[in-house]
Amino acid sequence: MNTLSKNQNLRRYLWPCAGLLVLLVINVIIAPEFFHIEFKDGRFYGSLIDVLNRAAPVALLAIGMSLVIATAGVDLSVGSIMAIAGAVSAYYITKGVDNLALIIGAGLIAGLIAGIVNGFLVGYMSIQPIVATLILMVAGRGIAQLVNEGQIVTFDHSGFAFLGTGSFLGLPFPVVLVIITFAIVQLLTRRTALGLYIEAVGANPSASHYMGLNAKAIKMSVYCVAALCAALAGMIAAADIRGSDANNAGLWLELDAILAVVIGGASLMGGRFSIFLAIIGALIIQTLTVTIILSGIPPKFNLLIKASAIIVVLLLQSPLFQKQLAQLKFRKATSVTNTAKEAKNA
Amino acid sequence: MNSTPVLQLKGIHKIFPSVHALKGVNFTLRAGEIHALLGENGAGKSTLIKVMTGVYQRDSGDILLDGQPIFPNNTGDAQALGVSTVYQEVNLLPNLTVAQNIYLGREPRRFGLINWGKVNRDAQELLKGYDLDIDVTLPLSSYSIAVQQLIAIARGVDMSAKVLILDEPTASLDADEVQSLFRIMRDLKARGIGIVFVTHFLDQVYAVCDRITILRNAQLVGEFETATLSRSELIGHMLGKELAALGDHKPPTNSECGDALLNVQGIGRNATLSPTDLQVCKGEVVGLAGLLGSGRTELCRLIFGVDKKHNGSITFNGKTVNVNSPRDAITAGMGLCPEDRKHDGILGQLSIRENMILARQIKQGWWKFISRKEQEEIANRYVKELSIATSDIEKPIEQLSGGNQQKVILARWLAANPSLLILDEPTRGIDIGAHAEIIRLIRKLCDQGLALVVASSELEELVAFSNKVIVLRDRQKVAELEDGDINPQRIMQAIASN
C-alpha cells in the first residue's frame, strides 16, 4: 500500500547518495590508494579520512543552512560568523584566558548574538532573508577585524587546538563534532515536532498561521542554530591554523553550504529538509575537489570541472528534467509499439 | 442595436489537474453593449476571462471574434486582436509617466527614434476624450487608482479594442469616481465597443448593464436582459436552488441551549465589518449567508483572530477569551477551515498524515511529540471515517482532488478536538458527490455535540443544516433567521432588501 510514496522518499535519497558513490568509484579507478586507510599513533590516516576532515566546516554550516532554507530563507552571513567566532576565541586566548569552556563558550555566544540579529531582521522585521543576512555578511568581517585589531592573531593553546587537529576514537576531532552536531539537531527536529513546524512554515506560511504556528519564533530559532553551527565551524578553522584571520576565515563558505543543501535535494522555496542529505552534499563537494587533484588535471580546470559536475547532479534532481527524461523514454516506447502495430496492420 | 455578436464563446471547457473550472460555458457579447458577468467566488468568472484574454488556453470549445475563430496564446495576442482587459489592480508601470504607459511598446517614431513630443501631445489629447486634463509627463503613481484605471482603459481602447473587459474596476473607487467611470463606459458603448463588466456590486449592474450572464459551479446559469430580471431572481440564480437532493430543512435537534458556547458581542473592525453579535450553542449549526464581500469571511476571520478586531468581545465556554491570534482561538477550543484552501489551508508538499496531525501537534506543544505510530493511527482513522480517496497517507496532499483536500483539512481540525468549528465555504470548488458527503458530515458532527459556524454562498446548503442563519449585507448583519423562517426565499429577501 505504501509503495508509491516510499519510492518517492527513496528517490530523494537516491540521487545524492548515487552521486557520492560515483565520485568515490572514479577516485578508486584513478587512484587505487584512495581507500587505503592506516592506523598510526591512535588515529586513522588516508585520503578518505582527509575528505571527511576537510568537509567538516562546510558540513557544519550545511546542517544549519538546511534548516534556514527549509523556512524559505537563506543565511549569507555564516562565513562571516565563522570569522567572528574565531576572532573572539583568539582574543580571549591572547588575553590569557586558559579555561577551554570559557573560550569555546565566548565563541558560541558571539555566534548566537549574530543569529539573534539575523532572526530578528528576518522573523520580526520581515526583511527578505537574502538582504537581512547580507548585512552581517559584510559587517561581520568588519567586526572580526575590529576584534583582531586589523592583525592576523596567532595563539598557542593546546586545548583549543585540539578542536581542529585532535582526534577521538581514531577520527579527526572536527569529524566527531559534525557527528555530535548532526545527532543533536536531528534529535531536536525529528524527535520533537520542531522539524515538522519548520517544514510547515516553509511549505505554506499562511496556512501555518491559521494553525497557530508562531513563524517568527521558528525563524528566529533556525537562524540561531545556523549561527551556532557557523561559530563552531569558525573555531575549528581557527584551531586548525592556530590563528584568527578575519579576512579569510570561512571566506565564501556560505556559498558552499547553500550548494551542499541544494545538492542534497532541498528547494530554496522552502519545505522539506534533510540534514543527512545536506551533509552528503558537503561530502560531494569535498570529494569532487579531491577527485580533480588526484586525476592530475591541471589545477586551472578545477573550478570549471566542479561547476559542470554540480550542474549534472542538480539536473538529475530537477523534477522538470526527470519528467522530460521520462517523456523521452515514453515516446521511444510508444513509437516502438506504434511501429509494431503498423507492421501488424500492414 | 447591432445584433451581431462581436465576441462569442461556445461550449468552453477548462480543466485543471484538480478541478473542472468551466463546463461548457457559452457567452455572447454584442457590439455596443455593457454585459455583466456575475457569479460567486469559484463560479468560473475569472477563469472565463482568462480564457478570453489568452492567459489560459481552452481545452475545448470555440471563441469567435467578429465571427472568426481566434486562438489567443497570451494577453498580447488577445490585445492585438482587439480584446483588452483592465484589472482591479491596475497592471501598468507605476514608475513610468502617464504618456509612456499609454504608448508603451507602440511609441510613435521619427527617424527610428521615439518622438517624445508627439507621445506627450497625443496622450494629452487622448485623455481629454475621457474628461482627464492631467499632466501626462508625471509618473503614473502620482495619480489616484481611479485615474490610473481610466488611463488603463484609454490605453486599451486606443489599441483598437473591440472588446473591453473590466474586472472588478469599481472595487476601490468612491461613489463619484464610480459615476465618472460609468459615464466613460456609456461613451465607449455608444462608440460600438462591447464591454464585459465583472463586479459584485449588484446596484452597479442595474445602473449600467444591458444584459447579464450568470455562472455558478463552473456552469452557465443563463443569459438575461437586465430590464426583465428582478434583483431577487438575480440573487437566486447566483446562489442556486437545485441542491434539492440535500433534503429539506433538517437541522440537528439535540441542541440544549442554556448558555451559548460561543457568545460574540459587537465584534467588528474598521472598514471590514460593522459590530456584529453571534451566539452558538453546543450541537448547533449557525449559517452565515450573504454575497461575496458581504462580510461572511471577515466575520469568521475576526472570531478566529486571523484579523485583529477593533471592538467587541468574545465569550467562549462561559469565559471571556482574548483572541488576538489563531493560536488564542485554538487554545480556547476553536478551529477554522479557511475559504481559500490552496493559499491558507493545505501544506502542499507535506503528506496527508502530516497535514492531518499538525493542528493537534501545535495545540499540544512541540515537545509533546506525537509518535509516528500514533500519527499513522490518526491519519488512517480519518481517511476511513471521512472516506478520503487515497491509496496512501504518505502522499503529498497537493496530489488529491479538491474535495479530498477539504476532507483532510476537516480531519486536521477534528483531530485537534475543538468544541467549535468554523467552516468558511466548505464546499467551494469541489464536485457534487464530495459536496453531499461534506454536508452529511456537518450533520453528523453536530449530532456528536460539536458546535459549527458555516459560511456559505449556497443557500440550499445553509437551509439544509442550519439551526439559525445570520444574513450579512454590505459588511453588516441585516437579519437573523430561526427555525421556521429558514428558507431560501427569506434569505434572499434579506440579502436583496434595501
Protein described:
- The complex is a heterodimer of chains A (346) and B (498).
- With 346 residues, chain A is mainly alpha-helical.
- Chain A is built from 14 helices and six strands.
- In chain A, the strands form three sheets. In chain A, strands 1-2 form a two-stranded antiparallel ribbon.
- In chain A, helix 1 (3-30) packs parallel to helix 12 (275-294) and helix 4 runs antiparallel to helix 10 (215-241).
- The longest helix of chain A has 28 residues, at 3-30.
- The model of chain A has no long low-confidence stretch (mean pLDDT 88).
- Chain B is an alpha/beta fold and 498 residues long.
- In chain B, 35% of the residues lie in helices and 25% in strands.
- Chain B contains 17 helices and 22 strands.
- Chain B has a six-stranded mixed beta sheet, sandwiched between helices. Chain B has a six-stranded mixed beta sheet with strand order 18-19-20-15-21-22, sandwiched between helices. Chain B has a four-stranded antiparallel beta sheet with strand order 2-1-4-5, covered by helices on one side.
- In chain B, helix 8 (231-239) crosses helix 17 and helix 12 packs across helix 13.
- Chain B is elongated.
- Chain B starts with a strand and ends with a helix.
- Mean pLDDT of chain B is 85; it is low at 242-246.
SSE topology:
The complex is a heterodimer of chains A (346) and B (498).
Chain A: H1 3-30, E1 38-40, E2 43-45, H2 47-70, H3 78-94, H4 100-124, H5 129-147, E3 153-154, H6 158-165, E4 167-168, E5 171-172, H7 173-190, H8 194-203, H9 205-210, H10 215-241, E6 243-244, H11 253-263, H12 275-294, H13 302-317, H14 319-345
Antiparallel strand pairs in A: 1-2, 3-6, 4-5
Helix pairs in contact in A: 1-12, 2-7, 2-10, 2-11, 2-12, 3-4, 3-5, 3-10, 4-5, 4-10, 6-10, 8-10, 11-12, 12-13
Chain B: E1 5-16, E2 19-30, E3 34-38, H1 45-52, E4 60-65, E5 68-69, H2 75-81, E6 83-86, H3 98-102, E7 109-110, E8 113-114, H4 116-128, H5 145-158, E9 163-167, H6 175-190, E10 194-198, H7 202-208, E11 211-216, E12 219-225, H8 231-239, E13 262-269, E14 273-280, E15 285-289, H9 296-304, E16 311-316, E17 319-321, H10 326-332, E18 334-337, H11 341-345, H12 352-364, H13 372-385, H14 402-415, E19 420-424, H15 432-447, E20 451-455, H16 459-465, E21 468-473, E22 476-482, H17 488-496
Parallel strand pairs in B: 3-10, 3-11, 6-9, 9-10, 15-20, 15-21, 18-19, 19-20
Antiparallel strand pairs in B: 1-2, 1-4, 4-5, 7-8, 11-12, 13-14, 13-16, 16-17, 21-22
